């Protein structure tokens, strides 16, 4: 019976084998709950979108709207808002001489789709035009750090330092080094200033927690994670990082309440499934979520998306026991992004398959001066 | 300002794109000239461009969708163009239903359409939500001959030629072979050019007059030379043009082909080139190859098995041509000694061909439909 249910669920979720097209019986039947239903900010965003759509080419309308839409995609994890931001920026999307505010937003949208080359080209142009633009410097430092280009990232952090608070400068720098001890020290020494809002402090604390965990200081990591969660309890990235910390320590049952209501978010659904895998009493939910994840990765592949490779590699390795598939994804992902999490899945997949070339690749990276 | 610094760094670190982006699922099935299909489009995406949530309460009800059926169909169908052999295949939405995908409710449009001609491929232009969300993708399943192929449409690739490769390589080859045969049989300019070159093949030019060829063997060799030269030449240019190596304006090519027919026919009346007709066949064959390529472009070449389709089409043209030769040669050989052959077929026939081709030349070079005007006047 359970198998049947799982099969049915898989059928419902596969992109081309949807349930069954039907005519609803009742006019009052609610088919779709729009995201703005629960969020006044999204309602305002929708009104702005209508105004921008009616006035194409008006940069003073398009830029604030695109900014808000990017913010919405960040808060909800919903890429449709990013596409809508891009649509608002369409008149300036391909123009080489686009005005600086549009360049910055363009770069932000591109990097969130892992088009790091495109993002860097826009940021280089922007910084050449406005060498002291703190936001552009910080964004470029972060893109470079994601690619593992730490020396270049540090140069941008150094240029940024006199233009921002000590805490932002410290977090910029700590995120762009392989020296965990130094990075942790820098973060611990940075005192929050009045300008550093809860978001900045949560950002610094999350990074500190991740570094402490990598250094093996679990107590400090937990303390930082909990402090960050108090500042920003709804943040999806933070929830994911905290879940990973708990999973690493065999505290799977603590992950459930954290992400159980976030199943629309692929990255958090993965954490939920990883936790349920370890909990016998959740066996049926685990099978459902495993099928759901497989369907979502298939759907992403069908449309040609490659931004989920890190998550999909974890899914293949741990949930599907497909080490070869995981290694392939982890290697492709490694060609694009080189954060600690990317290195970790590469090493785990390489160890699972015994692939010497991939292990050598990871070791060469770790041994780099 | 500091809030901004925060936003951007978080955006980078966060698992963005954690939800499913905007996709629509299109299935098209073809049988001959008839198209049927289904198009699943997310209600959220339709709300974004059409404002389905009439009362603004954040819920889309069946009543709200039902009230906008005509708008939904008109909006979507205006952004999907299907054509076969350059002729549009208009689609209509025969029904609207509701279905659920991983990211919510979708409207399901049942589609039906009819193409004017049965071409091996279909040309699709997909521009749904291009202005509202450039990251939207149209995921197409094209079903034909029991084979299903997937294609992804995006803002970067809104135009795609699909089909022509279903049902295995043999069927693909046969489809294009068939098209090649029909193209030469229906392409009167190519036939008239070939006939103009073949008419004198059963004769020998001596002392400014035509005489019957002494042996079938001699006539056959002459025909073989002409046909081989023509074939070789147009195969070269057809391949070059179809593979995109060389590209020439079609009006120029079509005019030059008409001119080649005029010259070939006139050469029978006032022979300039007598024994070396195969050279003329080769030179003009190069032009005709570009003409075949134009026709092949209208049919569309599938991306998979491109060489196979090209070879099929080319061999089809040759077979069609050989069939014409096989029908013509024995007949002409038998009649070659009669005055009727020389005067009526060679003389009047060539004159008529030259006249028809001259009209084509004017039509094509100056883009005036002379034949249509004559028909309308009479």
Task: From the structure above, extract its key features.
heterodimer; A: 369 residues; mainly alpha; 21 helices; 71% helix; globular; disordered N terminus; B: 378 residues; alpha+beta; 6-stranded mixed sheet; 4-stranded antiparallel sheet; 12 helices; 22% strand; elongated
How is the secondary structure organized here?
The complex is a heterodimer of chains A (about 375) and B (about 375).
Chain A lengths: L1 H12 L16 E4 L6 H15 L4 H18 L2 H10 L1 H4 L6 H13 L3 H14 L4 H13 L3 H11 L5 H9 L5 H10 L8 H17 L3 H14 L4 H13 L3 H8 L6 H12 L5 H20 L6 H11 L3 H14 L3 H14 L2 H11 L3
Helix pairs in contact in A: 1-17, 2-3, 3-4, 3-6, 6-7, 7-8, 8-9, 9-10, 10-11, 10-12, 11-12, 12-13, 13-14, 14-15, 14-16, 15-16, 16-17, 16-18, 18-19, 18-20, 19-20, 20-21
Chain B lengths: L1 H12 L9 E9 L2 E9 H8 L8 E3 H6 L1 H9 L2 E5 L2 E2 L2 E11 L2 E11 L6 E6 L10 E8 L2 E7 L5 E5 L4 H19 L1 H11 L4 E4 L2 E4 L3 H27 L7 H20 L7 H23 L6 H30 L3 H28 L3 H8 L1
């Amino acid at each position: 019976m359970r198998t049947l249910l799982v099969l049915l669920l898989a059928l419902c979720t596969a992109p081309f084998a949807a349930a069954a097209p039907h005519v609803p019986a009742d006019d009052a039947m609610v088919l779709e709950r729009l995201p703005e239903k629960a969020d006044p900010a999204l309602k305002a965003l929708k009104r702005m979108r209508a105004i921008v759509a009616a006035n194409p080419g008006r940069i003073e309308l398009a830029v604030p709207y695109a900014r808000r839409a990017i913010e919405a995609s960040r808060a909800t994890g919903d890429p449709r808002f990013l596409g809508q931001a891009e649509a608002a920026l369409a008149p300036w999307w391909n123009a080489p001489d686009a005005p600086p505010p549009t360049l910055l937003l363009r770069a932000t949208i591109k990097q969130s789709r892992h088009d790091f080359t495109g993002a860097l080209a826009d940021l280089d142009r922007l910084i050449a035009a406005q060498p002291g633009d703190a936001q552009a410097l910080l964004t470029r430092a972060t893109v470079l750090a994601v690619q593992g280009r730490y020396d270049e990232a540090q140069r941008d952090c150094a240029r940024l330092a006199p233009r921002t608070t000590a805490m932002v400068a410290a977090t910029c720098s700590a995120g762009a080094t392989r020296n965990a001890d130094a990075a942790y020290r820098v973060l611990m020494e940075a005192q929050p200033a009045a300008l550093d809002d809860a978001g900045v402090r949560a950002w610094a604390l999350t990074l500190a927690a991740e570094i402490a965990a990598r250094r093996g200081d679990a107590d400090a990591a937990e303390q930082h994670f909990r402090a960050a969660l108090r500042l920003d309890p709804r943040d999806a990235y933070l929830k994911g990082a905290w879940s990973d910390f708990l999973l690493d320590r065999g505290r799977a049952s603590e992950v459930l309440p954290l992400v159980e209501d976030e199943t629309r978010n692929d990255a958090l659904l993965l954490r939920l499934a990883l936790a349920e895998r370890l909990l016998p009493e959740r066996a049926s939910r685990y099978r459902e979520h495993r099928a759901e994840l497989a369907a979502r990765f298939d759907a992403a592949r069908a449309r040609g998306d490659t931004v989920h490779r890190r998550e999909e590699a974890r899914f293949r390795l741990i949930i599907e026991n497909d080490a070869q598939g995981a290694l392939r994804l982890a290697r492709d992902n490694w060609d694009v992004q080189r954060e600690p999490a990317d290195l970790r899945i590469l090493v785990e997949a390489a160890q699972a398959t015994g692939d010497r070339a991939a292990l050598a690749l990871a070791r060469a990276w770790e041994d780099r001066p | 300002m500091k809030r901004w610094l925060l936003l951007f760094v978080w955006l980078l670190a966060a698992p963005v794109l954690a939800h499913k982006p905007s996709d629509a699922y299109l299935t098209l099935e073809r049988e001959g000239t008839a198209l049927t299909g289904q198009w699943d489009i997310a209600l959220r995406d339709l709300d974004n461009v059409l404002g389905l949530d009439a009362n603004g309460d954040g819920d889309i009800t069946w009543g709200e969708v039902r009230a906008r059926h005509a708008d939904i169909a008109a909006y979507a169908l205006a952004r999907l163009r299907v054509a076969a052999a350059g002729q549009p295949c208009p689609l209509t939405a025969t029904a609207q239903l509701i279905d659920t995908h991983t990211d919510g409710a979708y409207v399901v449009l049942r589609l039906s359409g009819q193409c004017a001609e049965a071409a091996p491929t279909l040309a699709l232009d997909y521009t749904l939500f291009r202005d509202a969300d450039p990251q939207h993708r149209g995921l197409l399943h094209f079903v034909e001959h029991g084979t299903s192929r997937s294609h992804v449409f995006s803002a970067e690739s809104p135009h795609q030629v699909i089909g022509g490769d279903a049902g295995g390589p043999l069927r693909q080859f046969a489809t294009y072979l068939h098209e090649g045969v029909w193209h030469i049989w229906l392409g009167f300019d190519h036939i008239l050019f070939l006939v103009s070159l073949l008419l004198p093949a059963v004769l020998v030019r001596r002392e400014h007059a035509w005489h019957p060829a002494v042996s079938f063997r001699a006539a056959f060799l002459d025909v073989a030379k002409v046909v081989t030269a023509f074939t070789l030449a147009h195969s070269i240019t057809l391949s070059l043009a179809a593979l995109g190596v060389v590209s020439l304006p079609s009006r120029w090519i079509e005019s030059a082909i008409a001119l080649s027919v005029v010259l070939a026919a006139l050469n029978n009346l006032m022979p300039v080139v007598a024994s070396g007709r195969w050279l003329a066949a080769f030179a003009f064959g190069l032009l005709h190859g570009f003409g075949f390529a134009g026709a092949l472009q209208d049919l569309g070449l599938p991306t998979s098995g491109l060489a196979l389709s090209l070879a099929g089409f080319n061999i089809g043209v040759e077979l069609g041509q050989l069939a014409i030769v096989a029908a013509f040669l024995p007949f002409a050989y038998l009649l070659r000694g009669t005055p009727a052959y020389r005067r009526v077929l060679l003389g009047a026939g060539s004159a008529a061909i030259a006249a028809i081709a001259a009209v084509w030349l004017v039509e094509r070079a100056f883009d005036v439909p002379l034949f249509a005007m004559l028909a309308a006047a009479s």
